[in-house]
Amino acid sequence: MAVNDKQRRYLKGLAHPLKPVVMIGNAGLTEAVLAEIENALAYHELIKVRVSGQERADRKQMLDDIAEKTGADLVMIIGHIGAFYRPAEKPAIQLPR
Q1: Please, which pLDDT band fits residue 1 given cuts at 50, 70 and 90?
Q2: 76 strand-pairing partners
Q3: List of residues 6+ apart from 67 with CB closer than 8 A
Q4: pLDDT score at 76
Q5: Buried b (16+ CB within 10 A) or exposed e, 41-65
Q6: pTM above 0.90, yes or no
Q7: Closest Cα partner for 21 from 95, 72, 91?
Q8: Where are the domains positioned within the chain?
Q9: What is the pLDDT of residues 34-51, one digit of tens each?
Q10: How confident is the model at residue 83, as a pLDDT?
Q11: At the fourth CATH level, which superfamily is domain 5-85?
Q12: Distance between CA atoms of 67 and 74, rounded to whole angstroms?
C-alpha cells in the first residue's frame, strides 16, 4: 500500500517525536536486523530505524532495501534515521484520505 502525500505528511508528524527502535551498525542489513524490523512494524506500525557507519548513498540504498523487503513505506529520511510505516491487520493509526 503506497501512502499519498497528505498521508505521508501526517505520518511524518506522528514519527517526529519517536525514538529509533532498531539500530543498524557496521554489520549492515542482516537477516536478524530484518526480523527485528518486521517485529517492530507488526507491533508499532510506525517506526524509526537508525543506520550508522554508512555513506549517504549507502544509507539511502539500505533504507530503500528495508522498505522493499518488509513491504513498508519509507515515510521520511533525516540524516541517519529513516521512518517506516506498514499498517497492521487491525490498524491503530487512522490515515487521512
Answers
A1: low
A2: 83
A3: 73, 74, 84
A4: 96
A5: beebbbbbbbbeebeeeebeebbee
A6: yes
A7: 72
A8: 5-85
A9: 999 999 999 999 999 999
A10: 97
A11: YhbY-like (3.30.110.60)
A12: 6
